[in-house]
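Side project, low priority. Logging it here so it doesn't get lost.
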Amino acid sequence: QVHLEESGGGLVQAGGSLRLSCAASGRTFSTYTLGWFRQTPGKEREFVAAIHWSGGSTKYADSVKGRFTASRDNAKKTGYLQMNSLKPEDTAVYYCQLTDQPMGFMGRNDDWGQGTQVTVSS
């Protein structure tokens, strides 16, 4: 089993930037897709971004394309989500996911972090 811990959330004004980190410990990190999802109260968790285990491929939700960038450092067992040009509608709890599923999908054996709050003020 793996433990994932997100950090980097906080309060930012619209147009600002934040960089989320997801540090992993435990099982092999480098052979799994790293995903980012977000959730607001009363809504289902939604896909934001994902990066293939090799780092050679990424996928983004249309709502964040061109503003968010997913990356990873397998040697450090850490993934990152750089969020630029933030909008109030980006406000949510952000979760990182380690999965053997295709990018953007959730699976029964996924590992999840505890989440980090991102609040974007207008």
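Brief comment: The longest strand covers residues 18-26.
Revisit when time allows.
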